[in-house]
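User: Hi! I'm working on a homework problem where we have to compare a predicted structure to a textbook description. Could you give me the structure for the chain below?
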Amino acid sequence: MLSFIKEKKSVWDKLKAETRPIFIYGMGDGALKIMSVFRQRGIMLSGIFASDDFVRGHSFEGYRVHKLSEVEEMVDDFVVVLAFAAGYQEIVDKIHEIASRHTLYVPDVPVTGGGLFTYEYCVINEQKIRQVYESLADDYSRKVYANIINFKISGNIDYLSTVTTPKSEIYREIIKPNMNETYVDLGAYNGDTVKELLEFTHGRYASIFALEPDRKNFKKLSKFVDGMPRVYPHNAAAWCVDTELPFAAKAGRQSAISASSDTMIAARAVDSILGGKAASIIKMDVEGFEREAIWGAANTIARYSPKLMISLYHRNEDIFELPLLIKLINPNYRLFIRHQLYIPAWETNLYATL
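Assistant: Happy to help. Predicted structure tokens:
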């Protein structure tokens, strides 16, 4: 097996073997997914707590939601299972502070799709994981890749804190944007990643194509880019061909293509939008449909070799399938992997440049 995979016992097996009370920290979709795995694997749950500021005497899935301070008064020694995502330094610091006082795990559950990322899953996909590892362009990418995989198996946040890179460093050292970029933003949300790029190009660019499928988000995006020359917003999902797709609108960034929705939206392929013209940077954060978006940009990627920024964390298989797909389409790329500040391993991204 791969020597860089140090963790053999999954976080679920560790929790199953626990004799101490187990409390889930947080509510919402992440907690529901974790509780479902608990039921499937016979893991006993003692209760749920939230940060003291958020507790207002409510319940979640039949459990009274405690304050952390209440749990600490009731129980001397317990295990904390984090069930929400944290992308701000203040919250990340708080999680590490709790981890310094209690055993804390962060189980990896996929944002989209099913299955669990375990050591056994890595054994099944050993050849692909090895292929990606050996194709990475620098030692630090290999370290990030190894740590992310070990985190996904173990739920140990120490694997993340030692490979966290500031976004500004990624732009300066890998993407290196200039003032004449043709930027394609797939999953443009409210314009935040357009704004992010312009901060590094002093507001200068050749043209910008921004796709956002959620109508509410698209209104915010349109307002942000209103009056900007050569910016082309599209209220559409990124896909492999031009078509229509069922779409479930949710709050914030969580809207996604969903077969269970009756709402249809436009879907566009990057190659079609560009009409054979070049792009110099393509960013993809499309809630688990990066594979389809890549195929929709395959001609552009193969012909023009734009710099790529692609999310690797929505589906279990993304971390090996997406880098291999990019190499298949354009073998000339150098591949980098970086993890930005986030718990769990969200904001782990693939960067491809010549």
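For your comparison, note the following. The CA atoms of residues 20 and 78 lie 5 Å apart. The radius of gyration is 21 Å. Good luck with the assignment!
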